[in-house]
Write a structure and sequence with these properties.
Layout lengths: L1 E6 L4 E6 L15 E4 L1 E7 L8 E6 L4 E25 L4 E4 L6 E3 L6 E19 L5 E11 L14 E5 L14 E3 L2 E5 L5 E5 L2 E11 L8 E7 L2 E6 L3 E6 L8 E3 L8 E2 L6 E3 L2 E7 L6 E7 L2 E4 L3 H9 L5 E8 L2 E8 L4 E6 L4 E20 L4 E3 L10 E5 L6 E4 L7 E3 L7 E14 L2 E7 L2 E6 L5 E4 L11 E6 L11 E10 L5 E7 L10 E4 L6 E3 L3 E2 L3 E8 L5 E8 L1
Antiparallel strand pairs: 1-2, 2-11, 3-6, 4-5, 5-10, 6-9, 6-10, 7-8, 7-9, 12-13, 13-14, 14-15, 16-17, 17-18, 18-19, 20-22, 21-22, 22-23, 23-24, 25-26, 26-27, 27-28, 28-29, 28-33, 28-37, 29-32, 30-31, 30-33, 34-35, 35-36, 37-43, 38-41, 38-42, 38-44, 39-40, 39-43
C-alpha cells in the first residue's frame, strides 16, 4: 500500500492505492469482466457467510471470466480467487494471463487459490471452466505485485481512495508546497514552523514533531524539496534543513551556512523543475523583485532589468506559474494577471519572452478582395500596424495574420496565394495573458491546466491543442549599440530558428521602446530568414511577433552592421 499526500491551506488529505489492481473485484457481473460461454448468478453465500459470491455456470466448453489489465514494468504478479465447486467434476483453471492457465484441484469447500508469473504489458487474468455444464462459486478476486496473495482489498471503479487527515495535531493553516523526505511528509505553517508526519503514514501527526525558523524570524511562504534537503522559502529569507535522524521532535536540523537573505515575493511563482527551484524573490534591502533559480544552495538571478520593471509594477494580487519541456527547451512561465502579462524563460537559450493568448474583440470587418501578394481590401477597417487578426472565408489567406502596411481601406498580411475576390470576414484579436494556471507531468507526458474551464490538456513539441487557440509569442532583444553610441548603419537582420511554413513579424525601436518602426514579415521557411535595408541607428532593440497554432523555437537574431 502506498500514499499520495494532498493538501489545501487548511486541510490535508492522503490518497491510498490498494494492492489489488482489479476493478470491481467482487462484482463479476460488471462489464470490466469479459465473459465467454458463461452465465453468472449473484447473491450466493460467500466465505464469510455473506451474499457477495457468484455462481459461475459454463454454458459451453472452456468458459472464461477475465479482466484485462495494463501493467508497468516486468514484475512477479499474483492472481488469487476464492473458489468452491458446486456441480461437475471437470478441470478448473486460473491465470495471471489467459495465455498461461494453471489447473487447480477445486473442492466443495471455500479455498483461496492463487498463481503467479513474471508479467508486463497487457494481460487477462481470471478463471476457466473446461467442461460445459459445470458450476463453481467464486468470490473476491485479487491481482497484485508479488508471488503470494496479501489481505484481500475490495475495489470498485478505481484503485484509489482519498481520505481527509483528522489528526488534531495536523496544522490548521499551512503555506503552499509540501515535501516528502525519508518516509515522512512535511508541511510549513505561516509562522515558519515545519511539521512532519509519522513514518510512512500521512494520517498521523505529532504536535511536538516540528522545527521552527533558525536564521530569520520572518513568515513562511512556500515549502519545497531540493535534492536531499527541505527548502523553506520565507518572506525575506530561505533556509535548508536535512534529515539528522533526531530521536525526539523533528528529524530535521538546519544546514549550516546554507541560508540566504532572499525570500519569496509570491508563493504562486515557485516551480520545482529540472533539478532546481525557480521563484520570484525579494529582499529587505529596498524594493525590488527578481526571478531566481537555485544554483546549489545559493540564489542565482535569471531575470534582467526589463523583466524586473514588469515584476515591480505588478500588485501580485493574482499570479500563476508553470513549466514545460518543449523540444528539449526547459521553459518557466510566469503570469501576472493584474498586468495582463505572461513571461517565459528558456533555460536553454537563457532568454525571456512574452507569451500571450488571443482574445476576440467581437467586431467583424468585411473583406472584399485580397491580392496574390496579401494586400487586403476592407473599407474603413480601422486597423493599425501590428494588430492581430483572423481571416475567415478568404481562401488561401484564412487564419491568423499580423496587419502591416496600413492605409484607410487596405492592409497587408503575410500569407501569399491565389488572389481572392468576394465576401470574407476579419476579426481583430487582442493579446491577453497566457491562460495556463498550472502544469504537471507523468510518464513523459506534460499536462497543462487551462484557465477558462480547469481542463487538463497535453502539450508537446509539435502543436498546441487546437481548441485552446493560437499562441502569440513576442520576443524583445536588449538594446544593441555595437560597443559605441556613435551612429551606425544596419544592413540586414536574420532570424535563426526552426524552419516552419509560417511568417514572423519584426520591428525595431531606437527610442527606449516608446515608438516603433512598422512591422515587416520574415519568411520562416526560407533558407535565410532575413530582412535588409534597416537604416542608421545608435542603439536599437528588436521585437519579433509570431502568431500561429504551433510552437516555434527561435535561437538567435544575427545583426549585420555596415
Amino acid at each position: 500500500m502506498s500514499q499520495l499526500f494532498l493538501k489545501t491551506q487548511t486541510a490535508g488529505y492522503y490518497m491510498v492505492q490498494n494492492a489489488n489492481q482489479l476493478l470491481y473485484s467482487q462484482d463479476f457481473s460488471n462489464a470490466v469482466w469479459a465473459k465467454t460461454n458463461t452465465t453468472l448468478t449473484a447473491g450466493q453465500t460467500d466465505p464469510n457467510a455473506g451474499t457477495e459470491a457468484f455462481t459461475m455456470t459454463a454454458t459451453g466448453a472452456n468458459a472464461t471470466l477475465l479482466q484485462t489489465l495494463t501493467l508497468d514494468g516486468t514484475l512477479n504478479r499474483d492472481f488469487s480467487l476464492y473458489i468452491k465447486r458446486k456441480t461437475g467434476v471437470g478441470n478448473i483453471y486460473i491465470a495471471v494471463d489467459s495465455g498461461t492457465y494453471v489447473l487447480k484441484a477445486v473442492t466443495g469447500a471455500w479455498v483461496r487459490y492463487d498463481t503467479f508469473l513474471a508479467e508486463s504489458g497487457t494481460v487477462a487474468a481470471g478463471i476457466k471452466i473446461e467442461t460445459s455444464g459445470d458450476e463453481v462459486y467464486i468470490a473476491w478476486g485479487q491481482f497484485e505485485d508479488g508471488t503470494l496473495p496479501t489481505t484481500y482489498a475490495t475495489n470498485t471503479a478505481n484503485r484509489y481512495t482519498v481520505t481527509q487527515i483528522t489528526d488534531a495535531d495536523y496544522p490548521g493553516n499551512t503555506t503552499r508546497g509540501c515535501a516528502f523526505l525519508d518516509g515522512r511528509f512535511f508541511v510549513m505553517t505561516p509562522n515558519g514552523d515545519i511539521y512532519q508526519s509519522a513514518l510512512e503514514d500521512a494520517s498521523s501527526w505529532n504536535a511536538l514533531d516540528f522545527i521552527g525558523s533558525q536564521i530569520e524570524p520572518d513568515s513562511g511562504v512556500y515549502l519545497a524539496k531540493f535534492q536531499n534537503y527541505i527548502a523553506a522559502f520565507k518572506g525575506w529569507s530561505t533556509e535548508f534543513f536535512y534529515d539528522a535522524a533526531n530521536a525526539t521532535g523533528s528529524i530535521l536540523s538546519p544546514v549550516q551556512n546554507a541560508s540566504f537573505k532572499v525570500g519569496c515575493a509570491s508563493d504562486s511563482s515557485v516551480q520545482e523543475m529540472a533539478g532546481t527551484i525557480v521563484w520570484m524573490g525579494q529582499t529587505r534591502d529596498g524594493f525590488g523583485r527578481s526571478v531566481f533559480r537555485l544554483n546549489g544552495t545559493s540564489p542565482e538571478r535569471i531575470s534582467n532589468d526589463s523583466i524586473e520593471k514588469i515584476l515591480n509594477a505588478d500588485s501580485l494580487a493574482t499570479v500563476y506559474s508553470w513549466n514545460a519541456n518543449v523540444g528539449s527547451h526547459m521553459l518557466y512561465g510566469l503570469t501576472l494577471v493584474n498586468s495582463g502579462v505572461s513571461l517565459c524563460y528558456d533555460f536553454s537559450t537563457q532568454h525571456w519572452s512574452f507569451l500571450t493568448y488571443l482574445v476576440s474583440s467581437g467586431v467583424t470587418k468585411t473583406i472584399t478582395a485580397i491580392t496574390a501578394a496579401g494586400v487586403v481590401t476592407s473599407a474603413a477597417h480601422g486597423y493599425s500596424d501590428g494588430d492581430i487578426v483572423k481571416l475567415l472565408g478568404a481562401g488561401d489567406f484564412d487564419g491568423w495574420q499580423v496587419v502591416s502596411s496600413v492605409t484607410t481601406n487596405t492592409f497587408t498580411v503575410q500569407a501569399t496565394g491565389t488572389a481572392f475576390s468576394g465576401i470574407a470576414s476579419c476579426i481583430k484579436y487582442s493579446e491577453s495573458w497566457f491562460p495556463i494556471l498550472a502544469s504537471t507531468r507523468a510518464n513523459g507526458v506534460q499536462y497543462m491546466q487551462h484557465y477558462s474551464n480547469g481542463d487538463l490538456f497535453v502539450m508537446d513539441q509539435t502543436a498546441y491543442r487546437d481548441d485552446v487557440g493560437a499562441i502569440a509569442a513576442r520576443a524583445r532583444t536588449p538594446k544593441f549599440d555595437g560597443g559605441s553610441s556613435k551612429p551606425k548603419s544596419m544592413g540586414e537582420v536574420e532570424l535563426v530558428g526552426d524552419k516552419i511554413d509560417s511568417f514572423a513579424m519584426i520591428r525595431y525601436t531606437d527610442d527606449d521602446f516608446s515608438s516603433f518602426a512598422g512591422f515587416r514579415p520574415i519568411n520562416l521557411s526560407a533558407n535565410r530568414s532575413r530582412i535588409s535595408r534597416l537604416g542608421q541607428f545608435s542603439r536599437r532593440s528588436f521585437e519579433t511577433l509570431h502568431v500561429k497554432n504551433a510552437l516555434l523555437r527561435l535561437e538567435a537574431l544575427e545583426i549585420e552592421v555596415v
